[in-house]
Amino acid sequence: MKDNSILVIVARFLIPLVMLFGLYVQFHGEYSPGGGFQAGVLFAAAWILFVLIYGLETGLRVIPLRVIYSLGCLGVLLYCAVGLMGVILGGRFLDYQPLLASPQAAQQAGIILVEFGVGVTVASVVMMIFLQFARRRAQSQAAGLELDQEQDRS
Amino acid sequence: MSVEFIIQLIAALMLGIGGIFAIIGGIGLMRFPDVFTRLHAGSITDTLAPLLIIGGLVLLVGFDLLTFKLLAILFFLLFTTPVASHATARAALAAGVQPLGEDTRDTGASTSKS
Amino acid sequence: MVLLVLLLVVGTAVVLTRDLLKATMLFAIYSLTIAGLFVILDAGDVALTEAAVGAGISTILILATLALVPAREHRQRGHNRPALLIVFITGAALVYAVSDLPEFGSADNPVHQHVGPYFIEQTYPDMGIPNMVAAVLASYRSIDTMGEAIVILTAGIAVFALLSVPPRRRQRAPDAKTRGRDEG
Lengths: 154, 114, 184
Prior knowledge:
Radius of gyration of chain B: 19 Å
Largest sheet of chain B: none
Distance between the termini of chain A: 37 Å
Helix content of chain A: over 70%
Order of helices and strands of chain B: HHH
Largest interface: A-C, 66 and 60 residues
Oligomer: heterotrimer
C-alpha cells in the first residue's frame, strides 16, 4: 500500500499524532482518564497502522523483533522491581512509602513507574500478537498451503 | 432578540440539520444497490454531519479550552473519514467488485500507483 | 435507553449472522455502543479502554485472524435441547437474583458505604492526584494490576507459542487455486 500516495500522506500525518497521544494518555493518567492500558493499546495501534501501510519488514526494522519480545517482559519486571524496592527499603511489597521523602511524592512516583511498566507490556504484547498473525499468513502462502475452503453446509 | 439567543438558535439549527444529514446517510447506506454508491452516501454525509454537529457545539460552548478540543476532534475526523472511504473503495476494486452500470472500461485498479 | 436497544439489536445480529466479516464489523459497533454507555454512566477510564481495545485493536486482530480462516461460519445442524434447557434455567435464576439487588445508584446502597467513601475522601490527601481510578488501580489495589499485567504477558506468550511454529505442509494446493486467491 505504500504506492498509494493518499494513504501514505495521511498515515505519515496520523502515525506520530497517535503515538504522541498515546504518550500523553500514559503520563496524564493521574489527572485525566487514562493510564497504562489505554496508552499501550494506542501506541500499538500506531505501529500496526505503520505496518499496514509500509509492510511488515519495514515495521520490523523500525521496532525489531527482539525489542518487542524483551520489552514485553521488561514491563512486568519493572512493575515487580518497584514492588521489591518497597521491600528492600524497609516496607512491604508494592509499598510506595519508602521510595521518596514526602508521602505524596512517593505515591505519585510509584504510580507513574507502575503505569509505565503496564503500558510498555500492553503495547509490546499487542504488537507481538499482530505480527504473529501477519507472519503466519505469509508463511501459509509461502508453504503453498491452501486455506480451508469448506463449503457452506447448510 | 439578544445575541446569545440568536447564537443558540443557530447552534440548535446546525445540530438538527447535522442529525438529519446523518439519518439521510444511514438511509442511503441501506437503500443503495452497490458498494460504491453506498460509499458515496456514507462518506459524504459522514463528513458533513460531524462538521455541522461540532460547529453547533462550538457555537454553544463559546471560546474556551473545550473549543480547541472540539476543533481537534473535527480536524481528525475530516482527515480520516474520506481516507477511510477511499481505502474501502480501493479494497473493493481490488477484491473484484465491479461497479454497476453499462460502462465497461478498465477501472484502473490493476495498477497500484494512483 | 436508545443505546441499550441498539446494544440488544447489534448483539442479536452478531450471533445470527454467518458472514464473519459482517460479524466483525458488528462487534466493533457493539464495543463502541458499550463505550458510549460507559460514558453516560460517568466512567471515563473504562470507556476509553473499551473504545480503544474493543473498537480498535480487537477489530484489527479479528480481521488479521480472518485472513487465515474460511470466510463463513460453519453451522452445526440441529438443536441441542438439554443445553437450551440448562441455559434457560440459569438465565431465569440470574434474572430472579437481579430483582433482589438494591436499587441501582441509590446513595445508601451497601456498596457505597464501606470503601467507596474512603476512596473518595482519602485519595487526594493521600496521593495528591485527582484521578481516583488510577489511584485505586495503581496504589490501593496494585497487586491486582500486577496480576493483570502478568495475564496480558501470558496471553502474548501463549499466542507466540502457538504461532511461532511454521505451518506443516499438509497438502499441496493446485497452482491455479493459489494463484487466484489474493494478492494479500
